What does this fold into?
Amino acid sequence: MPVTVTLLGPLRELAGISRVQSLAPSVRALLDDLAGQFGEEFARRARRSRILVNGEPIQFGRGVATELHDGDAVALLFPVGGG
Amino acid sequence: MGKPLAGILGQVLEVDLSTGGVRTLTLPEADWLQLLGGKGLGAKLLLQRLPPGSDPLGPDNPLIFTAGLLTGSGAPCTSRFNLSTKSPQTGTIGFANCGGTFGMHLRRAGFDALVVTGRAASPVHLEIRDDRVRLRDARHLWGLDTVATLATLPGGGEHLGTLVIGPAGELLVRYASILSGHRTLGRGGTGAVMGSKNLKLVTAAGTHTLPVADRQVFTAAVKSWTTLLRRHPITGSQLPRLGTAGLASVANATHTLPVRNFQRGSTADLGTASGEGLAETILDHNSGCRSCPIRCARVATLDGRTVKGPEFETLGMFGPNQETYDIEAITRLGLECDRLGLDTISAGSTLAFAMELTERGQLASDLRFGDPASALRALHQIASREGLGDELAEGTLRLARRYGGLDFAPQAKGLEFASYEPRNAVGLGLGYAVSNRGGCHIGAGYLIFFEALGPLQIDPLTPLGKPALVVMQQNLMDAVSSAGCCIFTTYAVAPGGLEQLVPLHGKVAGLASKILLGSRVLLDHQSLLPSWALPVHLPVIPHTRTLSALTGRAITLGEFLAAGERASTLERLFNLREGFTAADDTLPRRLTEEPERASNPATVVPLGELLPRYYQVRGWDEQGVPKARLLRRLGLEWLEPTRQAVLLGRATAAREREQRELEQEEAQRRRIAAAREQGQDLAARRAELAAQIRQQEQQQRALEVRGAQFEVLSSRCGRCGECFRACPVPGAIRWEAGELALIDPAPCVRCGRCEEACPPRFAAIRRTPPPPATPPPPVHRVDPARCRKCGLCHPACPVGAITWQKRQQAVIDELICVRCGLCFQACPTKFAAILQLPEEVPPSCPSP
It folds into this structure.
């Protein structure tokens, strides 16, 4: 079972879809995979965004070296505010 | 003596609805400089005016509307104003901040604040037009929803500052709201306070301008501030493009979106219940408050109508929290709340809580998760207090006291939480517990921005450093709100181009989080810092430089944050004085003991660990009472007697409050019964009352207008031509597009139409009453013997005083007639059926 990636905000606009599946073994490989699929602008933004794996922010763990396993849920976030 | 403080009009308007008395007063400059206006000033006035323990729905409880120094100044996002009162929902201070039309128009009318006390004998409309303040009969408006009420105003009230309540406020629903233009004073049941005063509507308009100390510096500061907001990814991109609804998908991903009455913080599929979903379906365009470059409001097309799109809070509470994932259904529920005058957060949350109670078999109702139709029916029942609606109208806490479920009732101090699940943002959880108006995300300091939403994320689960950051954020937000500015401007504090420098998921971002949390070493002592210790302006907090240019006084970062701290301290002392104690700084057990994710036991709010540190950072004692030293540092020594009284009474405070609340509940039941009776009576006579009130107002107007002279004040004329278009006499007003209007006194018949047509923002027509010795203009009357029923006089009358139908004689209503003589001129000479008679001829005589 592949990992499911949720795309939000500007990334969702650029990709034209809200969800995508990937067989990438790590977050780094996943970002490369998505860059290939959705182009340069998408890749540029994705490489800068906040990333959660199964709801956990990866910057407090292993960063892009975080390994992905079957069934994992990855979310690429953009900064938001509101009230 | 130096120059007077700029940035204020200098007058506070006070209206006593019980007596109809109106007076103005001036506040010391120090009040403005220490508090910046808004919620800080509101809290001070409330503390000074309301006796402790007062019934929030009694006549003593004032509605205190305050502008901030920046309100209506033209600086970015400064249409905002504040309302402070004692909340009927919580018994704490109730404050609400709103970007609607009222604040700036109140200032245009010449007032920095409006204080309304007492209770009118029957429903009234408070009309403020510059210094002309009057109470108009509003019995015919009682029972109307907010939309229908505004529709009775000229132009739908678009060019006025308005405050209006719906049926929910009239029937004292504990979370009734007040609408101002397209925005809302939502939280704490302020609409019920307005309803308890029989105050249906307030309008304001005027011609004053705000004095600015240094116009050149002010304009430059505004310009660079606007650029900062436009370039920032949140205020320049996310909020304009997706609105606050854009939060939903990110909150869902970070497990901070309440689902199923706060059972979880995330759902597998949001459907269209998100900013993206809104944009892809019913969104038409974005809009915003006056002077706002962000423009976060949504305008949608639904059922063929152009309507307001939902804010994030509405979306969350009626959406995932009720397991509804259809943006159209959510939008309808939000609109219905606005129409009926209900706070969408409390209404949505109360319904979700009732849904869980029903599911557990503790409450008999047809409310079901995932069934927006059941929610819509319930909203109508709440606003009319019918059936179960009468109990739902009392809010979550009272519902839980009756049916059980206190452990999972999502509220603090009686106020329902906003649409953020705090178990994955524990700083927000602490904020909910200590917020002065109860479970509110804004009063909480909105630390979730750093814990889950914004560009720079700090560890959301650690309690370390969170109390200090909450205090810092609360002070900043309270200062920004008090100054009359939208808190969304604080998002620019997080550097806009951060993601250009470092990947937000990378190790460097993780390190930045650690540094921010580590700053607690300094921030833990922030309450010891004197306000002069930060004599700087920061580019990311442009508020201080702008305030300094506006007022002509140096308002540095230190002074600014101290103003926020004062607001928070005043509000805390108000609550303590009303009998709240440290035991009320709490959260339901669901949030403190049940992990949001079974896989991670740390997903709870460790309140026991957070709270003592928070008190310490704040400069409060272990029982949450501000220390004398703090009051001295903030220049609030005058509160020392209040503090002493709190310390003396704290052993019995909670018990006494409970007793008082029981008595007030009794009074509340009686008031609701009386309100229901009044509503039924007035609704049955609405058409008759509307005609009667219109006639009375026309009569009053006729007395003012008869024989008066009218002239255009060239200094005020807006050159809009409205007077020219309204004038019934060709040549009496000279005007060309873009030119000043001029009234020629010779052809002018003194009907007063020009004065009525002149937009209130100009009020450029001056009316001068006739000199006392002048004989009144002649009475106009139709001579039945001569009238040929032609009807030519009928359309000639500029004030609608003549009634006529085909083949019937014309009749002039002499009480409404302004005696302009246009009917006399219109009547064919051969008939000469309009008589001009001296004043003293009784109406029964057709001729002298």
Q: What stands out?
A: Helices of chain A lie at 9-15, 27-38, 40-46. The two ends of chain A are 38 Å apart (CA to CA). Chain A touches chain B at residues 6, 8-10, 12, 18, 27, 47-52, 55, 57-60, 63-64, 75, 77-83 (CB under 8 Å). Chain A has a mean pLDDT of 92.
